[in-house]
Specification:
- By secondary structure, this protein is mostly beta strands.
- Strand 4 and strand 5 form a beta hairpin.
- It has two helices and eight strands.
- It has one domain: Porin (Beta Barrel), CATH 2.40.160.
- The relative contact order is 0.20.
- Strands 1-2-3-4-5-6-7-8 form an eight-stranded antiparallel beta barrel.
- The longest helix has 19 residues.
């Protein structure tokens, strides 16, 4: 009997808590300015796009899990060297802290990025002719944004990779094997909350 009462209490409590949240699906899209740090590659501009689940707990805090496609890498200015193109699908969790009034917000969170091209399956089957980038990257990001009452938000984020891309052992792209080659991405874009 005590177990049944406890289960009933947990169900009622969780229903009450979740009913106080405002949860909406959202679309994200914008432009990346990406660079591979500690290389002689220049910044590369490419799009990102994804979906998010915006969970507004109260007037000052929202949690936003995201799945995003992001094209990153670096642009080579040397004719005989190719650009580095890295296609990521990343899962991130954005923590949003809103200022009084609920429009301006700060963003902070982690992400795990999965490389489309040089994933574990492709690395096993590789013929060794091309350079290979690590299959995953861990990153942290932060930023600022402004959200309007009709569901549109404009955001600026800085994202820093934490894992060495490890694609340049021969030094062609300027790595001296002493410094890690890390992703650095500046994102400017928009988010729109959908009303179902």
């Amino acid at each position: 009997m005590k177990t049944k009462l406890l289960i009933l209490f947990l169900i009622v409590s969780s229903t009450t808590v979740f009913s106080q949240e405002k949860t909406k699906m959202a679309l994200r899209m914008g432009l990346n300015s990406s660079k591979v740090l500690n290389s002689n590659l220049h910044s590369k501009y490419a799009p990102y796009a994804g979906v998010a689940l915006a969970i507004q707990f109260n007037d000052t805090y929202a949690l936003q899990p995201e799945i995003t496609y992001s094209k990153q890498g670096g642009k080579s200015e040397i004719p005989e060297l190719d650009d580095i193109d890295i296609n990521y699908l990343y899962i991130s969790v954005a923590n949003k802290i809103f200022t009084e009034g609920g429009h301006f917000h700060f963003i902070l969170g982690p992400s795990i990025d999965f490389n489309f091209n040089d994933n574990f399956i492709n690395l096993i089957n590789s013929d060794g002719d091309n350079f290979e980038v690590t299959p995953i990257d861990l990153a942290v990001f932060g930023g600022i944004g402004i959200e309007f009452d009709f569901g549109l938000a404009l955001e600026l984020r800085y994202k820093q990779g934490l894992i060495d891309l490890d694609f340049n052992d021969d030094g062609q792209y300027g790595n001296n094997n002493e410094n890690n080659q890390l992703n650095r991405v500046i994102q400017i874009g928009a988010l729109y909350k959908l009303n179902f």
